[in-house]
Amino acid sequence: MESIDVDATDLRLLDQLQRDASLSNQALAERVHISPPTCLRRIKRLMEAGFIERQVAILNTEKLAPTLGYGLTAIVEITLDRQGADLLEAFEARVAADQAVQQCYRVSPGPDFCLVVFARDMPDYLALAQRLFTSDANVRNVKAFFSLKRSKFEPGIPLQA
Questions:
Q1: What does the alpha-carbon distance between residue 114 and residue 20 come to, in Å, rounded to a whole number?
Q2: Separation of alpha carbons 126 and 41, rounded Å
Q3: Which of 34, 86, 135, 150 has the most crowded CB, counting CB atoms within 10 A?
Q4: CA 12 to chain centre
């Protein structure tokens, strides 16, 4: 990946994309006040430089609930018994590879990791806990908090142009 300088126009593009990545190139160019070819070239450059990791759709859990069930979202604190770099990296890689783990943060002070996990129901969460935590002899403590209501979910980064 090349190293690039990000200017105010790039920041406006990134801000618009994180709000709505489904915008056409034409609409995005109009919102940022640049030409469509310039817009396309800049977006390609930002992607190649790694500023845009990927583009995804954020699904509405309330609308999907009749089809999939509401499921359980849990914020889980994990404390390891030993915190050697190799042990931290091994745990992190193992949980990050699991589809039920939506987010994984290495944190300090306090627990070693905070995870956001999703399970279909409590038996599914128990299977997840067994698979990721109980079976790992280095996991000393697990503390789970179950979400009753999601009041806000905004994955965007505040950008100042």
A1: 28
A2: 48
A3: 34
A4: 21
CATH number of residue 97's parent domain: 3.30.70.920
At 44, which CATH number?
Answer: 1.10.10.10
Q: Which amino acid is at 127?
A: A
Q: Which tokens in the block code for residue 41?
A: 């070239």
Domain count, the chain: 2
Q: Is residue 161 helix, strand or coil? A: coil
86/124 same-domain check = yes
Kindly give the confidence (pLDDT) of every residue in the chain, 161 residues in length, as a single tens digit, with 9 standing for 90 and above.
Answer: 567 899 999 999 999 999 999 999 999 999 999 999 999 999 999 999 999 999 988 888 888 888 888 889 999 999 999 999 999 999 999 999 999 999 999 999 999 999 999 999 999 999 999 999 999 999 999 999 999 988 888 888 998 75
The DSSP secondary-structure symbol of 22 reads T
Element (H, E) at 106: strand 101-106
Q: Is residue 161 part of a domain?
A: no
State which residues form the domain around 29. 8-48
- Within-domain flag for 117: yes
Cβ–Cβ < 8 Å for 148, 11 = no
